[in-house]
Amino acid sequence: LAACDRGTQQARAGKGENGGVLRLQKFSVHDPAAGVTAFTLLLPRGWQHEGGIIWRPHLSNQAAAAFRAWNPGGSEVLQLMPCDPFTWMRGGIMFHQPGSIYLGNEVCLPVTDPVEYVTQIAVPRYRPEISDPQIVEVTPLPQVAAATAQARAEPGVHKTGYAARVRVAYELDGRKMLETFSCVLLTAEPMNTPGMTFWGPDHLYSYRCAVDDMAAAEALLQTMAASVRVTPQWFNVLTQVQQMWVNNQMQAIRNAGQISRIISQ
To answer: Low-confidence residues of the chain, pLDDT below 50?
Structure first.
């Protein structure tokens, strides 16, 4: 929070290349599928952007942010990446190999190290232009991890959080870049299903710029990332869709049980 406060102050007082004050403006990201604004964030005037909300009805978290904003006159980029849901059962899940979808979750051995998740899953999936990333700094965030697990607590489920900022270095178009990933992982173990684990990132975003620009740009990029706010209207839509999805899954399980009984008879 202190870093974000400093970033806000610097953003308000910072000077642009033309000598004027750098101004941040509230930008709204509209979700055409839901018909409402999904989230807002602060962007400097003149920045470009693309993406928004993607809906994935075959997954247990049906909607995810896939958004990128960048400075057309510089190297700074802020990127929000989808939070993919995963699951694993000790001993394996019958008829479901790793990579397949089970109950709306990708079958994959749990990853509880943010560094491993960033380098082995997030970068290949959402930052494929990065080749040979070198880890230069890891900052564990145990308080963020604990607060996330507490905020997501629910009866009958044991939840654990893991969080860190992971900074990597690489070359892009002949230029040396630094990119910082903020990754919070969450595992959920239902107490009535020993050996079953649902897991995945609770949030995942990154910001990057050229090595020479990072010292001046980092506070601004942190402020932009910290300014993201989901709207109550969109959250209400998502909650309703998720409840319908859960109901459909439970009905499918009941149908499968009925078919099994018929076959047995």
So the answer is: 1-18
- At 247 the pLDDT is 78
Q: Which residues pair with 168 in a beta bridge?
A: 135, 179
Q: Which two tokens stand for residue 184?
A: 């919070």
Residue 4 is encoded by which pair of tokens?
């974000």
Report pTM.
0.84
Cα separation of 261 and 265, whole Å? 6
Q: Tell me, what DSSP letter sits at residue 211?
A: G
Type of residue numbered 255: N
Distance CA(142)–CA(183), nearest Å, equals 12
Question: pLDDT digit string (tens) for 211-225?
Answer: 999 988 999 999 999
Instruction: Please count the residues of the chain.
Output: 265
Tokens 């489920």 found at: 157
> b/e per residue, 76-102, with b = 16+ CB within 10 A?
bbbbbbbbbbbbbeeeebeebeeeeeb
Query: Do 39 and 228 meet the contact criterion of CB atoms below 8 Å apart?
Result: yes
